[in-house]
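Need a sequence for this fold. Nothing fancy.
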């Protein structure tokens, strides 16, 4: 990928962050997870088996899958590719909205990440109650692959989760190709991000949130971890910072599976069927098949 194309993603993200930060009111931590309002899109998803609370997991796929979107995304647009992919393979699939800011529609994942993890905790309980199961599998993109680790580590989530699969997760933060190093040169910029869009500030490498999250080790016992990364990630950089260390961890680079794969940060979560195949392998390792370039048509 050309250097200017690699740089465009983080620049666009920063511009959007500045727009949100300068127009949104200060964040008040929610006292309880909000209940999503059904829409025509979510209703259509439910009719196809996605977010269908009458779905009962099968013997072949005994755990429901909870999809956790990334920053600026929501429970629908992030999963228009992967959710049907999993539903068509017999999974009960659910997705939530989290990290909403007052007065900011559509763009989620901007609130304090520890509060977003509380929303995930309540949502997992809802899915477990609806499906009658004792554990879920979680698949997250970007922040959605990292935030659940707070739930596992600090909110009692580990006994309720079998596996966490992260697509381009910012497990150790990001420097946005070094652009975050510029923040100290703009007085007040970092404070503005923290006040107006704390979910962004929490994701900067070295933040207080990430320091707490990663202290004492990346993983917790009893949960299987898979990280799927791309060398062309232009948002979570350096891309190897996405990888985890610890037992029951599998770190995967897409280009090691298919050398000609050119997916970047968004594509790996939105439409890359090679990444989707590797997600399916992580969810059902007993039936895993090799992921190759041919998996794009699988």
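Here you go.
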């Amino acid at each position: 990928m050309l250097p200017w194309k690699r740089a465009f993603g983080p620049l666009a993200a920063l511009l959007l962050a500045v727009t949100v930060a300068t127009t949104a009111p200060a964040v008040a931590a929610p006292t309880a997870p909000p209940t999503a309002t059904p829409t025509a899109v979510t209703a259509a998803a439910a009719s196809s088996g996605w977010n269908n609370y009458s779905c009962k997991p099968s013997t072949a796929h005994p755990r429901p899958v909870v999809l956790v979107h990334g920053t600026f995304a929501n429970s629908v647009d992030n999963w228009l590719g992967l959710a049907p992919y999993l539903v068509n393979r017999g999974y009960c699939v659910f997705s939530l909205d989290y990290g909403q800011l007052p007065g900011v529609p559509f763009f989620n994942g901007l609130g304090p990440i520890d509060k977003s993890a509380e929303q995930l905790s309540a949502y997992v309980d809802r899915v477990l109650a609806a499906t009658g199961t004792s554990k879920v599998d979680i698949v997250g993109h970007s922040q959605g692959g990292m935030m659940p680790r707070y739930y596992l580590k600090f909110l009692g989530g580990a006994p309720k989760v079998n596996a966490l699969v992260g697509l381009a997760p910012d497990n150790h933060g990001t420097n946005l190709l070094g652009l975050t190093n510029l923040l100290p040169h703009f007085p007040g910029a970092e404070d503005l991000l923290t006040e107006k869009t704390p979910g962004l500030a929490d994701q900067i490498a070295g933040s207080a949130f990430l320091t707490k999250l990663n202290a004492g080790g990346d993983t917790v016992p009893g949960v299987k971890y898979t990280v799927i990364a791309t060398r062309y990630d232009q948002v979570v950089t350096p891309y190897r910072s996405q990888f985890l260390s610890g037992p029951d961890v599998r770190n995967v680079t897409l280009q090691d599976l298919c050398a000609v794969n050119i997916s970047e940060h968004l594509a790996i979560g939105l439409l890359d069927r090679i990444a989707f195949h590797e997600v399916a392998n992580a969810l059902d390792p007993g039936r895993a098949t090799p992921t190759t370039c041919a998996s794009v048509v699988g």
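For context: Residues 49 and 87 are 6 Å apart (CA to CA).
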